[in-house]
Each structure stands twice: as C-alpha cells, then as structure tokens.
Amino acid sequence: MPKEATMIILDNSESSRNGDYHPSRVGAQFDAVHLIFAAKTQADPESAVGLMTMGGKGPEVLVTLSTDFGKILEGLHRTKIRGESHLATGIQVAGLALKHRQNKQQRQRIIAFCCSPIQEDEKTLVKLAKKMKKNNISIDFVAFGELDGENTKKLEAFSENVKGGEGSHLAIVPPGPHLLSDALAASPIMGNAGSGAGAGAGGGTEGMDGVNAFEFGVDPSMEPELALALRISLEEEKARLERERVEKEAKEGKSNLEGIPEESGSKGAPDVAEGAEQGTGEEAPKADEDATAKDEAHPGDAMDTTE
C-alpha cells in the first residue's frame, strides 16, 4: 500500500447514541478508528492519519495528520455527541486539512462514517464529489445505522462521481452480531491493510480470516521491540497471577486447618482412662484371691503374724 494521508470523519450526531451496534454507534466508530490507524501506519510508516467530527454546530478537526496514536486517542476522548451531522461541510474541511499536509508525496484519502440522516440533497453531494475528484482526493464511506433508501441513494451517487484512479468505496454495514470494525476490515476500504492489522469478522465471509494475524496485533518483523515488550509484559502478568493463586490456596489451606476443633485430640483420653479403670477393677479381685490362697497354704505363718 502506498503512503497515504488519511482524514477520518466521525459522525458524532445525536443518532450515534443508539445501541444497535456494539457497544454503541459512536463506540463502534472508535474501534474502527483503531483499526484504520493500525492498518495505515503498519502498511507504510510514513502514512499519517487525522481525526475530525462533523456533528454539532459544525465540523471540528480534533487531530491534524499525525503518526502518533496517542494524539488519536486524545482526540477520541474529546469527542462529544451533539447536534446533527454536516456531511458536505465535513468533507470540505477534511479536504483542506489534506491540502496542507507536510508530505506532498502522500496520497489523499478521506474515510467518512455516516450513521445519521444526510441533510444535503443529492445534487449538492454530486457537485462536491466532482470537486474532490478534481483535487485527487479519494473518499470512502462507511454507512451504518440509518440505512434507508434516501441515505443510501445519496451516498451511492457521491461514490460513483468521486471514483478515480486511487479508488473510492462505499461499505454498507447492517446491524448484526458482528462488530463494525470487523466488517470494515473485510471491506475493500481496507484492502490488504485490513488483514495486516490483525482484524477480521467472525462471519466466515471472504476476507474475514485475518483475525489475530499477529500476536498482540503487532507484526514482529516491523515492530520487534514492541512485540518483545508486549510478550515480556504478558509473561510477567501470568507469573503474577500464578503467585496470587498459590498464595490464595495457601491461605485457604491454613484457614481450613484453623477451623478444625481441638476437641478431636482429647476424645481418646476418656477411652484411655476408662480402659485403665477397667483394668484396675479386674486386677484387684485377682490380687485378693492370691492372698487368700497363700494364707490357707501357711496357716502358722498367719498366726505368728497375729502374735
């Protein structure tokens, strides 16, 4: 994949509150942003990604083109749900951000999420599409949520008029058990980068077999130090959990021993004492019988003893 400058447009309108996509429409977009950033930067380290929203009073650029994922996370954290979406204005602002990219060798691309009713008419969108095509900007749409005929028709008309040599795609993702990011990874929007990012859907569709292509979602050949650090961290965590398990079992064993009553040790004492008493009672009559027999055998000795 060639180096690209990609602006991601989030739909943070009130419609994004709905929970028909896991965990919500806006949350599903956040997961997809993680996938897009990983795919673009892993495909070419010189590729950059920016982030903006199109809801509320107007579009807002949260992060200019960057290779720092921390800035993207910060931008997602500052995203607020509000107002209605402004698709046409958002695309124009994203186009300006791409125009001012530092590396002019990067190809320009916009990935726009749309989950709310589109306010602009089809004629306005077609005119904008032709303008974007003239500026060599490829535009991909991820349509989900509001998938009525009117919305779909407008997006299809835009996509048909903006298509150029670099390719522009429209992915329509209906509600279902799958994740939005998984469906996106299997779509033409991501191409080969989707599987390279280690993401895929569990529906068994072609192109969705790239689930966890790399351990921890990191290609060791491209990020050996990061992959090693993650593996060491995982091993340390496993060792810590094992120590906690052993300590917990030891404590439970000790508490079980302490719970055994001490009376069990003294229960045998009465038996011993009783046996001793029984033994003493049997030996006493036997001793008396021996003394009587001795006196009968030597009567003289008995008399002498009396004197």
Tell me about this structure.
With 307 residues, the chain is an alpha/beta fold. It has helices at 25-43, 69-77, 87-99, 122-134, 149-162, 180-185, 192-196, 224-258, 263-266, 268-297, 299-306, and strands at 4-10, 48-53, 60-66, 107-114, 137-144, 170-173. The protein is elongated. Residues 194-213, 264-287 and 297-307 have low confidence and may be disordered.
Summarize the structure.
The protein has eleven helices and six strands. The protein is α/β, with parallel strands linked by helices. Strand 5 (137-144), helix 5 (149-162) and strand 6 (170-173) form a beta-alpha-beta unit.
Q: Keywords for this structure?
A:
about 300 residues; alpha/beta; six-stranded mixed β-sheet; 11 helices; 6 strands
Tell me the Rg in angstroms: 41 Å
Q: What is the structural class?
A: alpha/beta
Helix content: 40-55%
List low-confidence stretches. Answer: 194-213, 264-287, 297-307
Strand count, sense and closure of the main sheet? 6 strands, mixed
Number of strands: 6
Mean pLDDT: 79
Main sheet: which strands, in order across?
Answer: 3-2-1-4-5-6
Separate helix tally: 11
Instruction: Estimate the global geometry from the Cα principal axes.
Output: elongated
List the helices and strands and how they pair.
Layout lengths: L3 E7 L14 H19 L4 E6 L6 E7 L2 H9 L9 H13 L7 E8 L7 H13 L2 E8 L4 H14 L7 E4 L6 H6 L6 H5 L27 H35 L4 H4 L1 H30 L1 H8 L1
Helix pairs in contact: 4-5
